[in-house]
Write a structure and sequence with these properties.
Elements: E1 6-10, H1 20-28, E2 34-38, H2 41-54, H3 58-79, E3 83-86, H4 89-97, E4 101-104, H5 107-110, H6 124-135, E5 139-144, H7 154-159, H8 167-170, E6 177-181, H9 185-194, E7 200-201
Parallel strand pairs: 1-2, 1-5, 3-4, 5-6
Antiparallel strand pairs: 6-7
Helix pairs in contact: 1-9, 2-3
Length: 222
């Protein structure tokens, strides 16, 4: 087991992508070194559609969206046996210690927490950042279906709707956040094999040590 691990958030949009199995293969190769956070994808879209139809409150929708992440996570674990569902810090540490990749099922750790707003302003991106902070992870890697423009800052990503508006808050406890577009799964596999970084650094408004343009000597995924 490597501690601290990296947290990898896998976008829910990849649930319908032919690249999904390639990503699972790449992530599974990081057994003992990475924690996987599933997005919501079509499972969360079903919650949004039900809320529009029946007008129930955001509190219920938030809890349902957490369960949507768990549905996606359970699907991923069923597709790749090296992925192991984990709903607690102990479960995450145990899976890592055994050389597996814990797939976070968030509802047990999050429902009822006062520091997690029950709002659509909090997506799986922010929840992955929250978990990375709780685990004191080496960093957070966001796997997205769209690329990040060169030099694009976190504030610009928020304004474009590429990430949720609360992500900057939860990134404050994380030394490094990176972004990788879905077609670059081979890059993650190489990073895990040779110890180099994967993805592009997400630059913050007030750059820190890990936010230098072209930074490549921070925490690695090996």
């Amino acid at each position: 087991m490597q501690w601290p691990p990296w947290v990898i958030k896998l976008g829910g949009s990849l649930a319908a992508s032919p690249l999904l199995t390639s990503w699972l293969n790449a992530i599974a190769a990081g057994g003992g070194r990475v924690v996987l956070v599933p997005g919501g994808g079509s499972f969360a879209d079903a919650v949004r559609a039900a809320q529009r139809r029946w007008r129930f409150g955001d509190g219920a929708a938030h809890r349902m969206a957490l369960l949507a992440m768990e549905q996606y996570g359970l699907m991923l674990a069923a597709m790749e046996p090296r992925l192991r569902p984990a709903s607690s810090r102990h479960g995450i540490r145990q899976a890592l210690a055994e050389g597996g990749v814990p797939v976070w099922l968030p509802s047990r750790m999050l429902i009822g927490r006062s520091d997690i707003p029950e709002s659509w302003d909090v997506t799986s991106d922010s929840l992955a950042a929250w978990l990375a902070g709780e685990l004191r992870a080496a960093g957070l890697l966001l796997v997205k279906s769209v690329p990040m423009a060169p030099g694009e800052t976190l504030a610009e990503l928020v304004r474009a709707g590429a990430v949720d508006p609360l992500l900057p808050r939860y990134l404050q406890r994380i030394s490094e956040c990176r972004w990788i577009e879905a077609s670059r799964h081979a890059e993650l596999a190489r990073a895990l094999a040779c110890g180099g970084p994967a993805g592009d650094v997400v630059r913050r408004d007030a750059p820190g040590p890990a936010d230098r343009v072209g930074a490549d000597c921070g925490a690695t995924l090996a």
